[in-house]
Amino acid sequence: MGIMSRWNWGNMRRWRLPMALFVLVIISIFVVRHILEKRAQQRREVGYQYALRLYSEALKPGATRLDVEEYLHARNVPLRQMCCVDIKEFRKGVWDDLTKIGEEDVPWFCSQNNVYVAFQFSGNRHDEQTWHAEAGDTLKAVTIYHWLEGCL
Fold first, then answer.
1. What does the pLDDT read at residue 12?
2. Where are the beta strands (DSSP E) in the chain?
3. Which long-range contacts (CB under 8 A, 24 or more apart) does 83-92 make?
């Protein structure tokens, strides 16, 4: 029994340094990957802010929906409409316009993580059952909007 335990202890000592180096390499890979992902995120964010600035300079609050949509269509910028970029405005019944400017990493429970410039409008309230996008709606804000889509 003494020889066997001495043999096991000798083998364990021999593997300590390679195992420690292996663990150190694995940890280093994760740290470098995290740093590279963080830098990529910062570069994407700079791009989002640049797009926001361009749209904000061209389309000022007070512009009509017609003006905004004509501007976007003239530049072949696709857009979609949705309610409630600002959740406090849910009861107003006025659609907001979105144009996609990027994508982010997707969590496992969603199929898309898109980034949009959101053109938020105010307009006349109609009945509570119907949402409207009328040419005379007024642009009240231009913002960045992150939207997880296709989630479970």
1. 67
2. 80-82, 96-103, 112-122, 138-149
3. 83/131, 85/118, 85/120, 85/143, 85/145, 86/120, 86/141, 89/120, 89/122, 91/125, 91/128, 92/122, 92/123, 92/125
Place of tokens 């804000």: 141
Would you tell me how many other CB atoms lie within 10 Å of the CB of residue 20? 10
Cα separation, 47 vs 53, in Å, equals 10
Judge contact between 145 and 99, C-beta under 8 A.
Answer: no
| Residue 59 confidence (pLDDT) | 96
Nearest one of 92, 89, 79 to 130, comparing CA atoms: 92
Q: What are 20's two structure tokens?
A: 């420690």
Q: Three-state SS for 148? A: strand
Residues of the chain whose pLDDT is less than 70?
Answer: 1-12, 88-92, 125-130
Tell me the whole-structure pTM to 2 decimals.
0.77
DSSP string, 34-59: HHHHHHHHHHHHHHHHHHHHHHHHHS
What letter represents residue 121's amino acid? Answer: F
